[in-house]
Structure formats: structure tokens, C-alpha cells
Amino acid sequence: MSGFIYSEIKNGIIHIGRHNGDPKPEIIIGAYGIKPNHAKISQKENGLYELEVADEECATMTMVNGKQVPKKKKKLLNHLDRITFANSVIYVFYYPLLNMKLKEHLE
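Now predict its structure.
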């Protein structure tokens, strides 16, 4: 199965995991290796977004642009980053205003 699913990040945070996660994830993935509360994407005070996985085991099952999430379990996201969960589910982080935010942050 392939196609597009759009998930809006409301209130600056979106949870990713299994249907039995607490809090209940907005993005539910049933693939092998996904934990109930596998990861979250949240907006930082500077307007950038950060992917954070629950633990080191989740980091081994999560990649951004083909690279494993660092052991510190956090990764800043860029426009059009490809986030892969459990080697099977791919999401594209779409944030076209990011370039403007980065310029503001660097000035």
C-alpha cells in the first residue's frame, strides 16, 4: 500500500506510536519494532521542529534521510526530511517556511 497521509502538528506537538500509547498517538504505526510511545515531533521556542525518540532502542528503528537518529535521541528536522520508522513506514516532513525561520534564527 502506498499513498499520502497528511498529519498536521497542532499545539506544537505530535505523538507517534502504537494505538495503545499514552498519550494516544496522532500517528499510529503498527509495524514490528514500534513502541506504544515511539517518538514525538515538537516545535521548539525558536519555531524549529525536533524529532525525539523515546529511547535508544527506538533510535535504532528510526532514521532521518537514511541516517539513524543520534544516541542523544533528538534530531532537528529540515524541510523535506524523510523520516523512516521500522524500515517500512516513511514520512516526509513538509515545512516550506523553514528557510525563513532559519534566516531569522541566524540573524
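The longest strand covers residues 13-17.
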